[in-house]
Amino acid sequence: MVSTAALALVALLGGVQLLETVLDHLNLRYGAVAVRDADEWVRNALDVGDPEKMLAYQRSKTLLSGLQSWLGVVAVLAVVVSGLYGEVVTALTATGLPSVAQGVVLLAGAVVAGRLLSAPFDAYETFVVEERFGFNNQTVPLWLRDLLVGTVLALALGGLVAGGVLLAVEALPALWPVVGWALVVGFSLLMMVVYPRVIAPLFNDFEPIEAGDLRDAVENVFERAGFACEQVYEMDASRRSSHSNAYFVGFGRAKRVVLFDTLVDQMDREAIQAVLAHELAHWKRNHIWKQLGASAVQMAVVFAFLWWVTTSQWVYAAFGLPGETYAALGIGLLYAGPLLSLTAPLTNQLSLAHEREADDFAAETMGEAASMTRALETLAGENLSNPFPHPAYAAFHMTHPPIPERIRRLREQYGGDGASEDVGGDESGPDVPPSAT
């Protein structure tokens, strides 16, 4: 007989996934109407010759992602509710391995199973969807290499964190949530240093921007922003995809700005400078530390919840588990995941505020908003991004404000008529359509 706790887990996981499906449906319908209403703006400002192609791309990505998510939820519930999870834990306890090792083995099995489940979807997305819309540059051997390296990294890093937390459970049974929380926060800090220097180079080449017009442009914007010209790299993103982006990562001497080579090819120098200034703002305005602080608070709540779950006998009885804390932790995480998803509209507010601050910093650094506006238009157009997400979908999923909203805001605050140039060269620039708000 299925327990009340198991039924609650089915309702929670299934309910949140149903919510995601409804949001996806609303987003596709809303975006299709808005893009067709703003056909001229999409063609002229975003330089998208066929807006229907943008809609088809979003539809293909959304449907594939939704199918993958539903399959994942069904697989997890089948394993847990059927009692198979409890049987696996019982088999692990029979091996005689230390409890910590049992927990790490269980995690490793979950990682491998997850990778095997997602691999066909990732392959279809890369070699069918991305290929169909002209984004894919990846070969099958490179994709397989990424899959292997990514899996090994997930096993190594996940095992390291899980092992540390489980050691704390064993050594400090009354204090392990505090120690575990400190380990996770410390690991997050460590990864801000390790990721750009060790992990990212396993997948891409990073060349320092050292000479030429681009270097001059970089030095100029660093000077305007009040920075010494530090680590700015160009990444060979085009090796895998024609999508473009930029990001800021790290802190102290490990901090760096990374520009995709596709972005460098797609934008003019002033637009690149605006993107660079935007990324620098995340350091200048202490966004990195604020985000880390918010994440630490969130993790504290999660560990408090896990403490309650592992000290409540219902979880062991409901899912047929032996008295191993790591087994209860696994169930607790299944409850915590969807609960965190439901709080996304609240937690996303900090990131949204930071992105607006970074846009402001870029406009102030450049002395005008036109460059940042052109950069945003190029990013939306070149990536076939949905410029008009449904408000409910955006609340749950978007850590950046919609691009038309950002453009409108920049124009209103830093200049109107001449605040943006059309990608095609019209100096007046098209009006952002009313539906962009």
From TrEMBL:
Binds 1 zinc ion per subunit. PANTHER family: CAAX PRENYL PROTEASE 1. Keywords: Hydrolase, Membrane, Metal-binding, Metalloprotease, Protease, Transmembrane, Transmembrane helix, Zinc. Signal peptide: none annotated. Zn(2+) binds at H278, H282, E355. Pfam families: Peptidase_M48, Peptidase_M48_N. Its cofactor is Zn(2+). Residues 410-437 are annotated as: Disordered. It comes from the Archaea. Belongs to the peptidase M48 family. This is M48 family metallopeptidase. Residues 209-412 form the Peptidase M48 domain. The active site is at E279, D359 (proton donor).
